[in-house]
Q: What sequence folds into this?
């Protein structure tokens, strides 16, 4: 058996070596092939896209001509509307905060129904799973558009609009965490005779706590982000203000607004990181 | 003696916990008052919302289906262009940002700062501003996606690079390899799985985003949605939304398969 | 015939930022072709010492001379050239998992190629042939094109040995090369290192904590304790008393695992 293998490899290597002018291969065939196919396909699609999309090269050039003047206008920060902007930012934050809160309340029980290792009823779990997937594939601004159309402008529409993507996100993330880390704990508590409630409250919650907090942190940040976007679509908050500044060419206020968004989100990131570390220490 | 100190620490912990809880509750109360949030109104609104969906959005209006093909393809192509350009730029930035591959520490700080800035501004905002500069059409949307996407990818690429174990880098160091050789022969091969994973993820996000860019006039399927909703043609809007959902789901499935193969 | 001194170390000191003194004044000379094993408990400074030689760790004080050239004062370019002539074998193999075995071995040539050539895999056909030859010699002919993560521990380490040998080095440093291996693989790896270094006249500095293994292979044994050399002599001169002294406080580290060691100095293929 061993000798046969050696001969085989010898022949393989020899043919590669003796083929005139051919360079010796050094890479792993399959990995290389997969990578080549991927990058090749991307290149093809890229070139296709370039042709297909009407790239208005003239427009780009004109735009770049206009760029210096726009930058000049943007750099003249105006602090006139600082107060309005600040309130707007706060509204945006609040919308995100409330949306996350309500989503948590709803998504928490649902995620336990969806996770296949804890679910009391597999059929209902599957239905919820698919429903969540459907809700998740609709981009947030669309939800908010619908909310605005049905409930009118304002923060309420924003909150309800945000509810759907946030809840579905939490369900998916929590269910995944339960499925991944929960099995051992579930087994342990079931084996001592605990009921479904025991399993959840005494077993899973302590174990999954840090992971849950991490997910919540990530999503809250995202929701603040989306909340700003929502404003553009009509749900109030700072996004709404920014959009109007853009439309009315009030660039000075716009710059201040952008900076405010940046500072807020950045600070938020830091704070959430801190909280995560603190809780992790426990 | 020992018992006492651990007891003290335990009660300190308890106090901390209750304080956090109280702070939290206060926060909620403030928030609720600030936006005049009325939980009762919320509960009343939900039925309105849902009935709106079912009454006005269904049945789907499938006339003009052919009209929708071009915007869908537009959306897809915009995403491909944006993702590809973003990932190439982000690779360079990511390598400069990761603390185990950055050539100079100052580089890292500067790039990090820029990237965080671009990452925090919602891409729709970029698109909006760019519409003013570049006019309506797919271009501002694409640039908006590129700005945001590059920053986002640069950060996750850098994090993945930092997670690479230092062992093989050490080995290459010991053979006398240069910086460029170390990147090509150790960092890149180990980084590939994360690269594929995140880039595909970004592509998915970009498809969803480019579907919305239309709302601010930046091309793609979003334009159709905005138009039809402005005209109160909700059933048309829902058709477009349905198509969009289909597109996103198919793409999600495809990218999952690709991911399995590549990693 | 007087053997050339290839490595001279004078008063080597390494002090870490937190104050720990890992290497506390080491003076020694390595001659061409010597096969030296360094023994000592963990934390004694063996790893740090080894890594100072090719400056993977920056020495705090002292001088290191390799083939007449100063290592501690070398600039980047000179350091690369020095490192190209010093091969290194690591406890955890330090391979690139997603690349093929052959690519991993060829990494040994990077020190001899300029940046551009190295980045674009411009290895010469001669270099590739030599690398394949080494793999065949160490019994890995069936693994040449496999991905590195498909191999067993013993095989991976032999790839690491090939990588070091491909550098055509004058000196090979090995940091606990068999610590992560089972006894059979340990035998084949130690045999591979010993036989090939002897044949090619490559000097070898190996860190081991298993004293029996050291005695089987080494012409010269150096014992390190608390960052200093406390023993430097032949395997015969290393008596039990001295061994106890070196491993004072950490006696359990002297031994390898349960199975009795069966190395014979002959190359065995698995």
A:
């Amino acid at each position: 058996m061993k000798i046969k293998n050696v001969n085989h490899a010898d022949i393989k290597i020899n043919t590669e070596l003796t083929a005139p002018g051919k360079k010796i291969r050094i890479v792993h065939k399959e990995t290389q092939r997969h990578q080549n196919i991927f990058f090749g396909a991307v290149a093809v699609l890229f070139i296709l896209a370039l042709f297909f999309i009407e790239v208005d090269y003239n427009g780009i050039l004109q735009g770049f001509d206009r760029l210096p003047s726009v930058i000049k206008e943007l750099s003249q920060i105006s602090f006139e509307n600082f107060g309005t902007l600040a309130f707007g930012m706060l509204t945006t934050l609040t919308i995100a905060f409330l949306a996350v809160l309500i989503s948590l309340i709803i998504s928490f029980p649902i995620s336990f129904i969806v996770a296949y290792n804890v679910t009391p009823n597999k059929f209902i779990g599957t239905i919820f799973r698919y429903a969540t997937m459907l809700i998740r594939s609709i981009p947030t601004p669309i939800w908010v558009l619908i909310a605005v159309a049905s409930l009118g402008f304002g923060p309420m529409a924003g909150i309800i609009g945000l509810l759907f993507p946030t809840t579905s996100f939490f369900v998916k993330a929590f269910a995944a965490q339960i499925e991944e880390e929960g099995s051992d704990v579930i087994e342990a508590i079931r084996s001592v005779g605990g009921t479904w409630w025991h399993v959840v409250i005494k077993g899973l919650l302590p174990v999954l706590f840090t992971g849950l907090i991490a997910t919540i942190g990530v999503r809250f940040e995202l929701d603040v982000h989306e909340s700003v976007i929502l404003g553009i679509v009509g749900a109030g908050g700072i996004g709404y203000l920014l959009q109007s500044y853009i439309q009315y060419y009030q660039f000075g206020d716009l710059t201040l607004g952008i900076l405010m968004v940046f500072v807020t989100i950045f600070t938020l990131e830091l704070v959430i990181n801190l909280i995560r570390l603190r809780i992790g220490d426990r | 003696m020992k018992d006492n100190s651990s007891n003290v620490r335990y009660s300190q912990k308890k106090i901390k916990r209750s304080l956090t809880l109280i702070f939290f509750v206060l926060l909620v109360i403030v928030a609720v008052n600030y936006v005049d949030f009325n939980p009762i109104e919320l509960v009343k609104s939900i039925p309105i919302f849902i009935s709106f969906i079912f009454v006005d959005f269904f049945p789907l209006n499938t006339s003009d289906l052919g009209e929708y093909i071009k915007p869908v393809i537009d959306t897809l192509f915009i995403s491909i262009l944006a993702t590809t350009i973003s990932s190439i730029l982000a690779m360079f930035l990511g390598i400069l940002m990761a603390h185990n591959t950055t050539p100079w520490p100052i580089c890292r700080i500067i790039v990090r700062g820029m990237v965080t800035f671009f990452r925090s501004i919602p891409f729709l905002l970029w698109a909006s501003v760019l519409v003013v500069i570049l006019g309506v059409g797919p271009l501002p949307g694409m640039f908006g996606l590129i700005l945001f996407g590059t920053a986002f990818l640069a950060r996750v690429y850098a994090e993945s690079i930092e997670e690479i174990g230092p062992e093989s880098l050490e080995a290459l160091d010991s053979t006398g390899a240069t910086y460029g050789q170390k990147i090509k022969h150790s960092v890149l091969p180990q980084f590939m799985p994360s690269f594929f994973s995140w880039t595909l993820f970004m592509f998915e996000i970009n498809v969803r985003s480019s579907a919305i860019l239309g709302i601010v006039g930046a091309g793609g399927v979003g334009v159709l949605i905005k138009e039809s909703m402005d005209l109160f043609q909700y059933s048309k809007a829902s058709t477009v939304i349905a198509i969009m959902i289909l597109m996103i789901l198919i793409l999600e499935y495809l990218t999952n398969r690709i991911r399995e193969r590549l990693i | 015939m007087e053997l050339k001194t290839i490595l001279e170390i004078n008063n080597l000191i390494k002090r870490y930022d937190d104050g720990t003194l890992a290497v506390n004044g080491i003076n020694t000379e390595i001659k061409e072709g010597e096969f030296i094993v360094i023994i000592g408990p963990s934390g004694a400074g063996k790893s740090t010492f080894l890594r100072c030689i090719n400056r993977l760790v920056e020495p705090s004080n002292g001088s290191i001379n390799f083939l007449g050239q100063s290592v501690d004062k070398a600039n980047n370019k000179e350091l690369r050239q020095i490192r190209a002539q010093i091969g290194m074998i690591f406890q955890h193999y330090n391979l690139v998992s997603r690349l093929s075995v052959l690519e991993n071995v060829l990494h040994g040539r990077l020190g001899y190629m300029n940046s551009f050539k190295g980045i674009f895999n411009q290895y010469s056909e001669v270099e590739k042939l030599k690398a394949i030859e080494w793999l065949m010699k160490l019994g890995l002919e069936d693994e040449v094109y496999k991905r590195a993560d498909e191999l067993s521990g013993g095989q991976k380490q032999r790839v690491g040995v090939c990588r070091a040998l491909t550098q055509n080095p004058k000196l090979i440093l090995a940091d606990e090369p068999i610590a992560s291996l089972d006894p059979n693989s340990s035998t084949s790896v130690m045999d591979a290192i010993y036989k090939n270094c002897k044949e090619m006249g490559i000097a070898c500095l190996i860190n081991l904590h298993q004293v029996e293994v050291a005695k089987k292979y080494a012409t010269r044994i150096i014992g390190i304790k608390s960052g200093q050399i406390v023993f430097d002599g032949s395997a015969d001169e290393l008596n039990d008393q001295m061994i106890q002294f070196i491993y004072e406080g950490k006696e359990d580290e002297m031994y390898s695992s349960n199975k009795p060691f069966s190395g014979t100095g002959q190359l065995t293929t698995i």
About this structure: Residues 79-281 of chain A form a domain with the MetI-like fold fold (CATH 1.10.3720.10).
